[in-house]
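Weekly structure sync - notes
Attendees: PM, LS, DV (DV joined late)
Agenda: review two folding runs queued last week.

Item 1: First target. Sequence and structure tokens pasted below for the record.
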Amino acid sequence: MIIVPVKEGESIERALKRFKRKFDKTGVIRELRSRQQFTKKSVERRHEVLKAAYIQQKDSAEDEA
């Protein structure tokens, strides 16, 4: 359970913003979305490799410029 203490004189909007930030860091929504559809381990691995290759290529192109 996420607890966000509201300090005296602090606006509700500010406390709500802190709550949303903490909630995003827990990754609950990402987990729910990923569980809606089953993906095989091999497909997940392939996506990870492609993403790593893309990032590496992007970084090397950035170094050359």
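Item 2: Second target, run right after the first with the same settings.
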Amino acid sequence: MRKVFVSIVCFILAIMCVTISEKEGIVLANYAYNMFENFTSKSYVLLEANSGKVLVSKNENEKMQVASICKLMTSLITLEKLESGALKLEDELVASEHACSMEGSQAFLDAGSSYTVANLLKSVVVASANDSAVVLAESISGSESAFVELMNKRAKELGMHSTVYANATGLPAPNQYSTAMDTSLILKEISKYDLYVEYSNIWMDKFVHPSGRETELVNTNRLIKYYDKCKTGKTGFTDEAGYCLASSASNGNLDLIAVALKCDKAQDRFKESMDLFNYGFANFENVKIVDKTEKLDDVPVFGGKKSTANIEYNNDFYVVTNKGDKTEYVVNIEVFDKVKAPAQKGTKVGVATILSSGRIVGEVDIVLSENVEKHDFVDIVTKIAKNWELVG
């Protein structure tokens, strides 16, 4: 009788909710408000940065212009050249007439004047300077067109198979496009560079020209100032592309990337990106399944100075789950019977397979955490002597 009563009460409450919603004109889907239905962005994606798991999306693979978000690739290649030593931050580059002819956002460079790589890159990251982007491109590859070839090659290497670049700036050009999903890939890659993160967090700065003239740089990404979880990002706008934003945010447990493309208004890209982030932080969490610091049993060594070697997980492994999810995970460890010496630290010696309900959800390599040296004649003699002592 009690079950019948509870069922009747639940049914009445459900009817009441529907009635109230209809009276107030609130649109409900399965009694839950769809927070994304009023987005103006034509394409968006929210994903967990480390695993790449998509948490919510719309038209994330649709090709469209992304305006100055193209400068993520210009900046990435510059950072890679700095990392390799091909460029130095203090190197001075000459601004060409072509570079100084760029429209849109500028650092207002003087043609024929020299500027450091540091200042040029900073003006690209902070203020989306088109002229500075072209100076970097010309200096790295000899011409902007040659640099574009490098941009497209690098895009393919990153798995950005729905992206084609036509210039180093993102200014409108035929057959230039990307997607929200591809944009998330390059933002993830460039976020590995501390210098990019540092520059992208500058709110205001001054660009001092050789003549002493100053250009004020103002960050185009308002989330840096007004959303405390934001870590980095890049904006874009042209009439063709609309208002775009690629950004990342973290709450300490969850690292997220949001991309919103072709929004109607400038403020929409910021609001909708924050809505995406807030949705992710409110509904998902990272659960560590494999801990790299966990101690594993040593592996036997054949032909080595030592009879065993230390091993470890190659990396942590997280699973992005809905908050409160009670799913259980099992880690199956398979390690080689023996490791043949010599072997270098980092050599794969096994694998940890992560399963849930019998289904594989991921794998982590098990590797040597030390170098394994091959035994020599003295080691062999010493080992024989020790064995004789034990026998005696």
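Discussion on item 2: The domain at 291-377 is CATH 2.60.410.10 (Peptidoglycan synthesis regulatory factor (PBP3), Domain 2).
Action: LS to circulate a short write-up before next sync.
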